[in-house]
């Protein structure tokens, strides 16, 4: 299968490139720009396309290969601390998604006889705008930040292309994906696992700055890749899934404190040293356990996968790999 992966050098995209390549697929990596150290990923793709997805669809289409079977749209902008973030988020996460969809449609018109089999859009559970309770696909959407709202715009473009052009796409609302960095240009150190690993690596101390009993859904990037591959093969035959939104989550909630303990155990294995865990004590009046727990329902996804997929918990293993990354590249 010829697979186009957008945002190929990003956090999730780099995992996807490696996974699909190792499964024997022909990977086309699309990125807006190539940064230092990313040539290390070259063994995981056959072709590199460098193009800004905020440019015209015609310009993007001209750079794409013929006969693409699947596109995994992982390109995303989440650097909320950057200047002009609202504008950039809408341009990349929203309009950028439309541009990729239109570019693939135009490419398909030129490649008569070859139809795109699947377009998989990686959205986010943040479109629900909730921080506690049980979240299902049927719940109302209430995005509360530019990241969530711009991804919802991307979702609507996917549905529009299904209505107008019968585009075979599916929308995956990802929960908190975790995994070790795959390239030297990695810059997502604000994500929970990476932030805590970096603190432990540098100080042999881990300080939890929020309620340690807060429970969230965490899903391993290895499982995300496997699910996406299976869906890419299922989707061409499942017209009922075109334009559907599906939660991609482990379906289980674990506490921040549990995550921290896994990281400390990984650090002990890596360094032979015991790190100190400091945690804030939640006040008795801070709310019930239910209010601190967010569970993302994945029953729809499981049914699509015939209920034979089991999600793994690999926090300790990925923390260990993150420590190796920190040591290898001397990240400060």
Automatic annotation (TrEMBL):
Domain NAD-dependent epimerase/dehydratase: start-end pairs: 3-228
Superkingdom as given in the UniProt entry: Bacteria
Family from the record: Belongs to the NAD(P)-dependent epimerase/dehydratase family.
Record-given protein name: UDP-glucose 4-epimerase
Source species of the chain: Desulfovibrio litoralis DSM 11393
